């Protein structure tokens, strides 16, 4: 072997050694590091449907039998165990946004719907002032405009012919018998003949067989009551006339809206038939009586309609911005920040610091202001709350077993709670004990004994206690041998209603008088 060959071999060996040294060792180290980290993260297993379940090993949920999923523990230190800590990346992915709570003077927008109606004070009936036969109609159809003093109808009246003859006779002796003349003239005047018409009769000496009925107002004819040839009596309605120079806007206000409305409030409204135009006017009247059928009260706005654009029965939509003086200087938050469970309203408050740490807070809501709420209690000025992504934050809190929308800190209102306790053995589901609670109706110590005996009679139940104060039964059982439904059925069979099952009436009637809990 020559010297050149030896140098090549030494070079190759040196290269392999350096390659192993620089590349192989870090990979092993890194692989070991990742494995250890991954192992530490997946030490707790939970159920996606029942996040209160906590187990050390994978398996199935003792409540719903779903496969447990690994729960990654957050290794960041938390000063408050009830607070939820999110990473910056998870908060961004969930699109969680926050804002500062501030004191405002709340303004509530009340949306109203209604119609245009004629002003009732400007409606008038045109009547016949004398009985007779309709000889001619000068206004022939509904909707025709009329003016004050315009001739509407000609009526032939035998009574008027007789009265004119008496007037002419009295006019001839008005010097000797002025009282008779005045009486004859006043009789004709009562039939609404004008002074000009009476003077014409006297001067011409001719008797008029027909009398003209003239309009007493301006407006449009909304109804025509007579035809040519009809016989009418004194006071009969000939036409109905409406003056539409001013109209009413009648809005329907529901009971819940009435506390925020008052006389003088400005109402801005639009008309469906007039797109692009807006109108406004003050509230003149609020009906003090609620309609028993529609459950609304009428709110009236009066507006000038000299151009005639607004016509009766047009649909309108109004908006009132009511200043809530009684809630002045109160906190106002966006509606998206509130999670409502039916009994309580909650928000998530960001804790002090740069990290996205949130804690649940129960609040008392005031009136809703469109897309925001007035806060009566529960928050302070300057606090930072989640205004977008609150549901995502709440879901993360449930998965980590933190207080959430469905799980109060005290858990006094929770109908069913379950915690797993590590039993003897390998830690599998079969070796786990489940403690749960549910509501049971009852009154006395006899009920307590009966409920606990019925629950313990179920195979797999190790312990049962019923508290007559909060009506909650606390049960510890083996999920491999029984479940909550079977226990509740046994209690109901003994005569006590549970959350899911009702006792039979015949069984309930056999209970002692002191144990009967039903109110009807």
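Sequence proposed for the structure above (520 residues):
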């Amino acid at each position: 072997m020559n010297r050149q060959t030896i140098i090549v071999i030494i070079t190759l060996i040196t290269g392999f050694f350096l390659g192993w040294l620089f590349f192989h060792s870090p990979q092993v180290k890194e692989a070991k590091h990742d494995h250890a980290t991954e192992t530490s993260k997946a030490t707790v297993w939970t159920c996606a449907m029942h996040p209160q379940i906590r187990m050390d090993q994978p398996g199935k949920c003792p409540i719903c039998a779903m496969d447990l999923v690994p729960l990654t523990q957050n290794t960041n230190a938390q000063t408050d165990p009830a607070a939820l800590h999110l990473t910056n990346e998870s908060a961004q992915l969930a699109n969680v946004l926050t804002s500062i709570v501030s004191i405002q003077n709340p303004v509530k927008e009340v949306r109203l719907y209604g119609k245009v109606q004629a002003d009732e004070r400007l409606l008038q009936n045109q009547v016949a002032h004398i009985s007779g036969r309709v000889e001619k109609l000068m206004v022939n159809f509904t909707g025709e405009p009329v003016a004050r003093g315009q001739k509407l109808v000609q009526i032939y009246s035998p009574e008027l012919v007789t009265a004119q003859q008496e007037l002419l006779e009295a006019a001839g002796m008005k010097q000797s018998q002025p009282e008779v003349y005045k009486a004859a003239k006043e009789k004709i005047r009562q039939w609404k003949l004008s002074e000009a018409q009476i003077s014409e009769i006297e001067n011409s000496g001719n008797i008029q067989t027909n009398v003209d009925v003239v309009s007493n107002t301006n407006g449009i004819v909304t109804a025509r009551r007579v035809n040519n040839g009809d016989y009418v009596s004194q006071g009969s309605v000939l036409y109905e006339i409406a003056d539409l120079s001013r109209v009413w806007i009648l809005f329907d206000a529901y009971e819940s809206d009435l506390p925020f409305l008052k006389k003088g409030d400005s109402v801005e409204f639009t008309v469906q038939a007039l797109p692009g135009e807006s109108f406004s006017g003050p509230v003149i009247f609020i009906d003090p009586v609620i309609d028993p059928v529609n459950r609304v009260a009428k709110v009236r706005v009066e507006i000038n309609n000299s151009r005639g654009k607004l016509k009766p029965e047009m649909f309108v939509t109004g908006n009132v911005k009511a200043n809530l003086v009684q809630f002045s200087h109160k906190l106002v938050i966006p509606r998206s920040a509130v999670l409502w469970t039916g009994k309580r309203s909650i928000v998530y408050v960001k804790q002090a610091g740069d990290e996205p740490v949130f804690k649940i807070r129960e609040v008392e809501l005031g009136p809703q202001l469109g897309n925001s709420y007035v806060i009566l209690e529960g928050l302070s000025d300057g606090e930072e709350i989640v205004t977008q992504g609150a549901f995502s934050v709440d879901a993360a809190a449930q998965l980590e077993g933190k207080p959430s929308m469905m799980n109060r800190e005290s858990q006094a209102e929770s109908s069913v709670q379950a915690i797993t306790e590590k039993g003897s053995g390998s830690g599998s589901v079969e070796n786990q004990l489940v403690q749960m609670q549910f509501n049971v109706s009852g009154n006395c110590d006899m009920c307590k004994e009966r409920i606990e005996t019925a629950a313990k009679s179920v195979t797999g139940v190790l312990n049962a206690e019923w508290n007559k104060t909060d009506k909650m039964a606390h049960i510890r059982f083996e999920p491999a041998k029984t479940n909550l439904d079977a226990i509740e059925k046994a209690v109901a069979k003994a005569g006590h209603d549970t959350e899911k099952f009702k006792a039979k009436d015949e069984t309930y009637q056999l209970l002692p008088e002191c144990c009967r809990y039903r109110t009807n």
